[in-house]
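Structure request: Ig-like domain-containing protein, Labrus bergylta.
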Amino acid sequence: MLFFVLIALSACSGQPVTSSCPVEMSPTTAVVRFGDPFSANCSSLSNQTEGMGWESTLGGTPLTHGFTFLPLKIDSVTDWTVNAQCFLNTLDENQCFKILPITVYKTPDSVSVHQVDQKGPIVSGQLYYLQCDVENVAPMRHLSVYWYQGNQLVEKHKVGDPDPIPASKSFTQGMRAHSDDNGTKIWCEAQLNFPGVPNAYTVRSEPHELIVLYPPFFMDPANETHEIRADSKTTLNCTATGNPSPSYSWHFPDNTQMNWSQHKHPAFLTPDNDVPGTYKCTASNTQGTTSKYFTVIKAKGNRTTFAALVGGFVSLGALLFVGGLFFMTPEGTFAFNKGSYLKGQPTSSGPV
Ligand SMILES: *[C@@H]1O[C@H](CO)[C@@H](O)[C@H](O)[C@H]1NC(C)=O
Ligand SMILES: *[C@@H]1O[C@H](CO)[C@@H](O)[C@H](O)[C@H]1NC(C)=O
Ligand SMILES: *[C@@H]1O[C@H](CO)[C@@H](O)[C@H](O)[C@H]1NC(C)=O
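Returned structure:
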């Protein structure tokens, strides 16, 4: 408690209290790129003054009288810790001043991403590290580094380092590899943000493309049952996704004779209609192996053919019956009455 009081007292003692100095500066704070020119104005809010002036580590403006505003002009800001203050001499021989805070910045020479401690592709499920190198940037305390993966913000780093001089810094990001990540792009972005400066200064790294190795998996891993019919072909789809691309092998029911030259795509199999049984497909790559079973059964009792036959007989019977109504007279002779014979009229209901 006493400590704070002492600080407060020391801040008030000696020099005049700066906050009460009746000057107005424009701008009130400044952000300048290293090497750029800089200018500011100071004006007095009181007419009881002896004069005003600017002091800065890069030159100033001597005590001047009779100006409504006094300019400070710096041709090139070449000091990372430049400071400037406008001072005012009052008629009673007092002097007060106000500080113009100036932040000098430099955008990074380069921003780049690389994989740490890993040559070659990463494997799904493993933890891997990426490093973002930001070269020669100032000031660190205004630097933020963002990680993006496929346009999604992944992580943000902020630096507390108060050193105003340009420095380089590396940021490491650990991530868990997932099969979905294969082929996605990761990059980092270095941003200098200043309060009140709407357009942040951004430098983005080249994207780093992820290659993730992963074992094959089926989109639909459930085993399948197929009914084979005489009138259509059944295709068993064993397509799996994996990196590297999986290779396939099939295990057929015992009495099957497969002609492999007919199967251009090994992920698809069209079984011989005569051979029901269990077909096993195995997809494998350097990362693993997975299998799926296809049970092929014959359609029961060839019911379709039977139904077609029954339907045919019923139709024929109905046709004969209707034909009889139209063409047979009560006398038992055929009558060719054109008026009652409607061409193309449906004769009966079809198969049941
Ligand atoms: C200083 O004031 C002059 C005159 O009003 C103006 O032209 C100039 O833009 C001002 N400079 C700054 C940095 O405000
Ligand atoms: C993995 O990504 C690489 C690079 O984009 C691409 O060439 C390859 O086809 C991808 N593999 C899979 C299985 O998605
Ligand atoms: C498929 O069938 C095999 C053999 O019966 C079994 O081991 C496996 O768990 C089944 N897979 C699924 C996804 O049901």
